[in-house]
Specification:
401 residues, mainly beta, nine-stranded mixed beta sheet, six-stranded mixed beta sheet, globular
Length: 401
């Protein structure tokens, strides 16, 4: 008898740093619970390059209504959890991720975001429309209201996405953003409340699969102290809270957490959750209206880092840096006739696997034509600098001229 498999769903990790956009910087690893679930459902897990693939064994049945369905039915309560293990240390150098946020939070992707754009089903959250009163920092994204995405290149509030002094166009692509960060916690963790109190009312809310919001009461607890304090300890295990995402209120405070000891202790970079309860045929479900695999393809796409390039010339032998298409210009500092200490790009330059072609004007010339300027070496510590959070990113490249 022939056994037939079909893709149940796949996840493609993309990054604009790479020429082909295929990002193989992660190991995509099923959680222990998911590994057991895959085994019990006779599903096959593959992580090939940049792609996670889950294959379903299919029924072979004379009844057309049953033929081609998963061999074992998938419980709508089931969820598939995968950890993202980072393999490339330089990833945070060439990728636009929130470095400040990543100090305490991790990336979280799910099909419940239902972020559909063009023909792509993104697991990242949709990027918010530009809001005039919001302060944007370099690296932040905003939608101009037409699904065109812009990246902030200079701290601003009140300068909309049409102002090229503060924004760079990123076309109509949905990228991973700060909205995809979540606080990972262990089953027992300390929390510092906003306000001191002697009594703390703690309420834990889990996913309501009807609304897809975290509003369903899961547990509650009251902690009482003899003196006012801000530091409390939450024991989720004593509340019978399982692994997963929750919304917690602590008096007037509210936070979203992902409770999973292994997520933290194993140092994973992010996590993916694929839920099964969405209606068959939904753009983010993996079964069609007949309950057969759709070969659903999900996407997670990272933007490459934008940075002001600074060519540093300790021997003062460079008189200019040029770009063949004149898209970028470089300003010498100090200005002529003094010998330039460095040349700085007029606008941020994207970091890519194969960098932009810049040419060096030298005095004296050492070849028949201007030599090509080197691109940044992302493996060198400090190649990307940022004086302080909220400041521009700089790419420092030292020349031997």
């Amino acid at each position: 008898m022939t056994i037939t498999y079909k893709i149940l769903f796949s996840v493609d990790i993309l990054n604009d740093y790479y020429e082909n956009h295929l990002c193989s910087d992660f190991s995509i690893i099923p959680s222990p619970e998911t590994a057991l679930l895959l085994k019990n459902l006779q599903l096959v897990y593959k992580n090939i390059g940049n792609r996670l693939i889950i294959l379903a064994k299919l029924k072979r049945n004379e009844n057309p209504a049953e033929d081609g369905k998963p061999f074992i039915s998938i419980d709508p309560e089931a969820k598939f959890v995968f950890y993202l293990g980072l393999k490339t240390p330089e990833f945070a150098t060439f990728t636009n991720i929130n470095l400040v946020g990543m100090q305490t939070e991790r990336l979280y992707f799910t099909n419940l975001n239902q972020n559909k754009h063009l023909s792509f089903s993104h697991l990242s959250a949709s990027i918010d429309n530009y809001y005039n009163a919001h302060q944007y920092l370099p690296g932040d994204f905003a939608d101009d209201g037409t699904k065109k995405i812009f990246e902030c290149i200079k701290t601003t509030a009140g300068n909309n996405t049409a102002n090229t002094a503060f924004w760079a166009s990123r076309d109509d692509v949905q990228y991973v953003s700060s909205k995809d960060l979540i606080l990972p916690v262990t089953s027992v963790f300390n929390y510092e409340a906003t306000a001191s109190a002697m009594v703390f009312a703690i309420n834990v809310f889990e996913l309501d699969t009807v609304t897809n919001n975290y509003t369903k009461p899961a547990a509650s607890q009251t902690l009482t102290f003899t003196a006012a304090t801000k530091i409390i300890q939450l024991d989720l295990g004593s509340l019978a809270v399982k692994k997963g995402k929750y919304r917690i209120t602590i008096n007037a405070d509210e936070l979203l957490i992902y409770a999973d000891d292994e997520f933290i202790y194993s140092g994973y970079f992010g996590i993916i959750e694929i839920f099964s309860h969405l209606s068959n045929g939904n753009d983010f479900a993996f079964l069609d209206v007949n309950g057969k695999p759709l070969e659903r393809e999900y996407f997670v796409r990272f933007a490459n880092r934008l940075a002001t390039w600074k060519y540093i010339t300790p021997k003062h032998g460079v008189t200019g840096v040029t770009h063949p298409a004149s898209k970028y210009t470089f300003t010498p500092t100090p200005v002529p006739p003094a010998a330039a200490e460095y040349f700085e790009s007029n606008i941020p330059v994207p970091l890519t696997q194969f960098p932009e072609e810049f040419r060096l004007q030298l005095s004296p010339q050492i070849s028949s034509g201007p030599p090509r300027a080197p691109g940044p070496d992302i493996s060198v510590p400090g190649v990307i600098s940022r004086p302080a959070p909220g400041n521009d990113f700089y790419c420092n490249i030292y020349l031997n001229y």
